[in-house]
Amino acid sequence: MFAFAIGGVILGVRLSILAGGAAELWGMVLAMVGALLGLVLAPYLTTRPVRAIRRRMAQVSAQTMVAGLAGLIAGLLIAALVSAPISLLPAPFGQLLPFISAIFLGYLGATIFIMRENDITNLLSSRFQASPGESGAGSQNGRSILMDTSVIIDGRIADIARTGFVQGPMLVPAFVLIELQHIADSSDPLRRRRGRRGLDILNRLQKDNTIPLRITDLDVEGVREVDDKLVILGKQLRSPILTNDYNLNRVAELQGVTVLNINELANAVKAVYLPGETMDVQVIQEGKEAGQGVGYLDDGTMVVIEDGKANINKTIPVTVTKVLQTAAGRMIFAKPGIE
Q: What is this structure's pTM?
């Protein structure tokens, strides 16, 4: 407002000379117009650009910022080396080209380093990697893994992380933690228990030194759904999403985000039985078809036993006749056999 008011006074005095009017009146009127114009334009020149930059920087990971800064420094160093011979060119090229080359090479260096930030990070981590005998040395080589609310509540991730199959630090965004807290504060007893179970799992993971767990304040402005935020954040950070939510799995895959599904992992590590193999199964209930009995293996695989209804609440040897893979998991069909 002050700058525009001063500009209005100067403009008013010059216009008064051309119009032959009173300089004080012209200066006062245009100063008020300039102050009003400055009041209207001030947010667009100050606070709004700053807020836009802050929102953008809040969505950028520290790894990306460090890579961009390193690329900018490398580009400026190269520009400084080439500016000496370029400055010997005749005017105006000798004055303009060093400045243009500094802008171009700085931008090019930052862009290249950001595009290859994962390769650079892996290269540096391999250089400074601890010896294989030290605990947790292998867990620092992978990318950060974003955790969904469902996989935290599920709880199996704590046991999986302890085995060392998770390669990379686990990242829990603040909005996932807030959703977990809302579930823990729910009036529904079942949801409340599930939320508190998720908080307990996070405490276990934080105390376990096998895989580092970090809470991040990274957020996605303008998006309300937690799943949508996770997918966008996964694309920005180039990080896989750890979940057991079927819908999130499909949406993330359609958008090119890597998904680590706990349910798919559980199905993949179940014991493989071929037709003709025998096993012991406890028949616990009646099947859908007449005379069928149903039992379950230790890993949760359903076993449908032909003519097994008569052996309910008994453990009997059965022979596998068919193995069926469904969307819900693996199902085994068997008939009573003899050990």
A: 0.52
